[in-house]
Design brief:
By secondary structure, the protein is α/β, with parallel strands linked by helices. 35% of the residues lie in helices and 23% in strands. Keywords: Amino-acid biosynthesis, Arginine biosynthesis, Cobalt, Cytoplasm, Hydrolase, Metal-binding, Zinc.
Length: 390
């Protein structure tokens, strides 16, 4: 392993980017690589495997195990590259003009690489407060993979003092993010030849009524709903994202699926909003469909759910994060993270702070600046120093 800090970070990031960990495939090769690295340093870790046996997270402890510690948390999965116009292989790290290009460099293998690169310094520091690494999977499809790990953390006799989730914030301290609830509505209509359309039940037209109601409520939330000006979008948002339906121009469509989401500023607001929409559809749309034919109707299923984060600005974890980052400002973000789950599932106070910009996440030619990674390393260095104090 190269000895200088920048070289360690580059090498580890190149290694991590080389593993294709798009969420629809296994992350076990990457996890095994990290385990091998940690084992070579004599670091203990716990692997938490999912029900399929194809995904795993890691809980790592450096320092005393009989004291509450601080967590550095990051996910290993990345979004797909299919259909994106990359100028080079997205799974090969390329450095140009101080930028490191590759899928996941910003979101969020850069943060994970920094944390791993700083492990030797953690080991040398004789920590009095332990540092934990929480390395998860399937964050991109609804913060799925961190949940089994947090279930284990919640059972531990000694709970962490706090958590830093390293999503890209350009090292700004983020004390809140919106929650999200996603729903799929499947409309069951009645197919007929389009020449006798009134005899059928048009699933697409009923779906259109739902979409119109979602839009109406979204406008109302934007104009009259609760506001929090720490967010760039200071109100709860609601939208239809995906619609599929119909078979042919001359057939009354007997099926249509609609996927919609709410991102709420309140801890439980997202589900409250979508639940109200479902209740409206049950009362207003489904009876009309069943009047035409009793087997027609709507099936609703939850497809994604994670809570909001709302950490008090004067909380100890916020004060510590600002001290380590060398800045006094804080903000909230619209995108979701695993931080809300650390709070709700394990009772661990959390903030979001990490290298890179969310503007680069999920884009072709995704990159993180080396300067950002070094700022993050400085943050971890100060964390190590903090954890050596009595």
């Amino acid at each position: 392993m190269p000895s200088s800090r920048p070289d360690r970070i580059r090498k580890l990031l190149a290694d991590l980017v080389a593993f294709d960990t798009v969420s629809d495939r296994s992350n076990l090769p990457l996890i095994a690589h990290i385990e091998s690295y940690l084992a070579s340093l004599g670091v203990r870790f716990e692997r938490i495997v999912d029900e399929t046996g194809q995904k795993a997270s890691l809980w790592v402890t450096i320092g005393p195990e009989d004291r509450p510690g601080l967590v550095l948390s990051g996910h290993t999965d990345v979004v797909p590259v299919v259909g994106q116009n990359w100028s080079h292989d997205p799974f090969k790290l390329v450095e140009r003009d101080g930028r490191l290009y590759g899928r996941g460099t910003t979101d969020m293998k850069g943060f994970v690489a920094v944390c791993l690169a700083m492990v030797p310094e953690m080991l040398e520091a004789k920590l009095k407060t332990p540092i934990h690494l929480a390395i998860s999977y399937d964050e991109e499809i609804g913060c799925v993979g961190v949940r089994p790990m947090l279930g284990e953390v919640a059972k531990k006799r000694i709970k962490p003092l706090g958590c830093f989730v390293g999503e890209p914030t350009q090292m700004q301290v983020i004390i809140g993010h919106k929650g999200k609830h996603g729903v799929r509505a499947s409309f069951r209509g009645l197919a007929r030849h389009s020449s006798i359309a009134p005899d059928g039940v048009n699933a697409i037209e009923y779906a259109a009524e739902l979409i119109t109601e979602i839009r109406r409520r979204a406008v109302k939330l934007a104009s009259n709903g609760a506001r929090d000006d720490l967010y760039d979008v200071p109100h709860t948002t609601l939208l239809t994202s995906i619609v599929h339906g119909g078979a042919a121009l001359n057939i009354v469509p007997d099926h249509c699926t609609v996927e919609f989401e709410c991102r709420g500023i309140g801890i439980t607001e997202s589900k409250q909003v979508t639940d109200a929409i479902i209740a409206w559809a049950r009362a207003e749309l489904e009876p009309a469909m069943k009047t035409k034919h009793p087997e027609c109707g709507i099936d609703f299923e939850e497809i994604l759910d994670y809570p909001a984060l709302d950490t008090a600005a004067d909380a100890a974890i916020v004060t510590l994060a600002k001290s380590l980052a060398g800045r006094n400002d804080h903000a909230k973000v619209a995108f979701g993270t695993e931080a809300g789950l650390f709070v709700s599932m394990a009772g661990v106070p959390s903030v979001v702070i990490g290298p890179g910009s969310i503007a680069q996440a999920h884009t072709p030619d995704e990159f993180v600046e080396m300067a950002e990674l070094m700022k993050c390393a400085g943050f971890v260095e100060k964390l190590i120093a903090h954890c050596t104090k009595d």
